[in-house]
Amino acid sequence: MEVRSHFLLSITFLLVLQYTSLYMAKLTQGTVGAAQINITTDQSALLALKSHITSDPHNILVNWSTTTSICNWVGITCGARHLRVASLNLSYMGFTGTIPPHLGNLSFLVALSFNNNSFHGTLPYELSYLRRLKLVSFGYNNFVGSIPSWFGAFPKLQGFYLYGNQFSGSIPTTIFNLSTLRVIVLSGNQLSEIPQEIGFLHQLEKLYIEFNALKGHVPMVVFNMSSLTTLTLYGNSLSGGLPDNICQHHPSLEKVNLGDNQFGGPLPSKLWQCTKLLNLSLVENNFSGSIPKTIGNLTMLKGIYLNSNNFNEIPKEIGFLHQLEELYVPLNALKGPVPVAVFNMSSLTTLALYTNKLSGSLPDNICQHLPNLQMFQWKHSKKYWELNPVNHDWA
Ligand SMILES: *[C@@H]1O[C@H](CO)[C@@H](O)[C@H](O)[C@H]1NC(C)=O
Ligand SMILES: *[C@@H]1O[C@H](CO)[C@@H](O)[C@H](O)[C@H]1NC(C)=O
Ligand SMILES: *[C@@H]1O[C@H](CO)[C@@H](O)[C@H](O)[C@H]1NC(C)=O
Ligand SMILES: *[C@@H]1O[C@H](CO)[C@@H](O)[C@H](O)[C@H]1NC(C)=O
Ligand SMILES: *[C@@H]1O[C@H](CO)[C@@H](O)[C@H](O)[C@H]1NC(C)=O
Ligand SMILES: *[C@@H]1O[C@H](CO)[C@@H](O)[C@H](O)[C@H]1NC(C)=O
Ligand SMILES: *[C@@H]1O[C@H](CO)[C@@H](O)[C@H](O)[C@H]1NC(C)=O
Ligand SMILES: *[C@@H]1O[C@H](CO)[C@@H](O)[C@H](O)[C@H]1NC(C)=O
Ligand SMILES: *[C@@H]1O[C@H](CO)[C@@H](O)[C@H](O)[C@H]1NC(C)=O
Ligand SMILES: *[C@@H]1O[C@H](CO)[C@@H](O)[C@H](O)[C@H]1NC(C)=O
Ligand SMILES: *[C@@H]1O[C@H](CO)[C@@H](O)[C@H](O)[C@H]1NC(C)=O
């Protein structure tokens, strides 16, 4: 009895094993329903794409010849293990055309890059079948309309690049379910809204949405995404103030560019909490008041760009920024003398202070402690002195 049940158990085990390996074999062939999907399918998908490319000024597609394996075609990389198309990179090839639904059959595709071509039309729904995709890059093409919500179907997506098209409307909330997303680049479109749900992206490091049609306030959750290192929203019509605790949940922030919007009010006094900040650009806004003294604690800063605001004071604490290379505060309401500490920042290469209400005279030995200064813009935009970097004489 015991022997028999052992025997049955092992048979069952073997059957399970066999079934599993069969299943695995089918899986690596990419079986969908009844049709077998293999490299031949990949070839037909690519040939369909070729037939949808209407202009190929550099004659690149001559290379896509059926006499050789598709794995040798320009722009194609096959996976070493399964010999299916893993990467399709047609960036910078000068193509004009549309994307056929057949690309949805490239079931082993991990990276899809079509940057800098003239693809147009709609992105077919069938692309959503590409469950292995980690990179989607359609930058600088001519796609229009809404960003399809099926972009939320890529559970492994890490990089999402749709810059330089004419996408409009909101960013579909479906993509905010993709917890693996690290980089979103939607710059240069006509998007009008950042949904609250963006706060679900707990691994997002870089968010670029400059030059779009975003309006109103930035959703507070954006200032709460602790994984962010880069936040670039310039060239929109955003407005409002920055919350005083903007940095409390942003321990990793390195680069912030909120230029050319309609933000106003004082700078957050707790700016010092963004301890990793390297580059701060808030040009062409309506910020006012003093630049907070605590900026002197952000000792990693290399660039500060505050052109065209209403700041009235540079604190002397700015002198603590021993890595600062570029300090731009022109076209503001700065009053009084420039703190002497500013003329003591040996890392500075550029100092722009023109069109303010500054008074007092410049120290005689201005260059003594500014050995790296290459450009000094003092009074008006056209009236600046360029320093000769060799002997520090006025050029
Ligand atoms: C791919 O599958 C088809 C059936 O769908 C089969 O005829 C063909 O021989 C297969 N090709 C390869 C390279 O396995
Ligand atoms: C296509 O280009 C690749 C790489 O540049 C080359 O290895 C291959 O031989 C070319 N194939 C044809 C048919 O020209
Ligand atoms: C795609 O090709 C371009 C041009 O050859 C290259 O610069 C880029 O790094 C490639 N992208 C990927 C994801 O391989
Ligand atoms: C691939 O995709 C196209 C269009 O989505 C479809 O018509 C075709 O049957 C698919 N399968 C194969 C094996 O080519
Ligand atoms: C990509 O396209 C943009 C916009 O047309 C252009 O400014 C840029 O120079 C192009 N880059 C390359 C490498 O072709
Ligand atoms: C996100 O995923 C959750 C759980 O999987 C689902 O309930 C929800 O509808 C999804 N949201 C969107 C916007 O796709
Ligand atoms: C920001 O995060 C904190 C802590 O995780 C949470 O208490 C707060 O409600 C969040 N605020 C917003 C606007 O999401
Ligand atoms: C700029 O801010 C000041 C207060 O600092 C306010 O009086 C003025 O209306 C604002 N200007 C614009 C264009 O928002
Ligand atoms: C900021 O810098 C000042 C002067 O160096 C220092 O006294 C203060 O403790 C610093 N604050 C923080 C929070 O690091
Ligand atoms: C800061 O970022 C701006 C915009 O990307 C760039 O032009 C500038 O060179 C950066 N500054 C430094 C010091 O890296
Ligand atoms: C200038 O810097 C030097 C060394 O960093 C320091 O000893 C000196 O006190 C500073 N002078 C002023 C006016 O900040």
Automatic annotation (TrEMBL):
Keyword tags: Kinase, Leucine-rich repeat, Membrane, Receptor, Repeat, Signal, Transferase, Transmembrane, Transmembrane helix
Signal peptide extent: 1-25
Membrane topology term: Single-pass membrane protein
UniProt organism field: Prunus yedoensis var. nudiflora
InterPro entries: DNA_repair-toleration (IPR053211), Leu-rich_rpt (IPR001611), Leu-rich_rpt_typical-subtyp (IPR003591), LRR_dom_sf (IPR032675), LRR_N_plant-typ (IPR013210)
SUPFAM superfamilies referenced in this protein's UniProt entry, alphabetically: L domain-like
Presence of keyword Signal: yes
Protein's recorded name: Putative LRR receptor-like serine/threonine-protein kinase
Keyword presence, Coiled coil: no
Leucine-rich repeat-containing N-terminal plant-type domain mapped to chain residues: 41-78
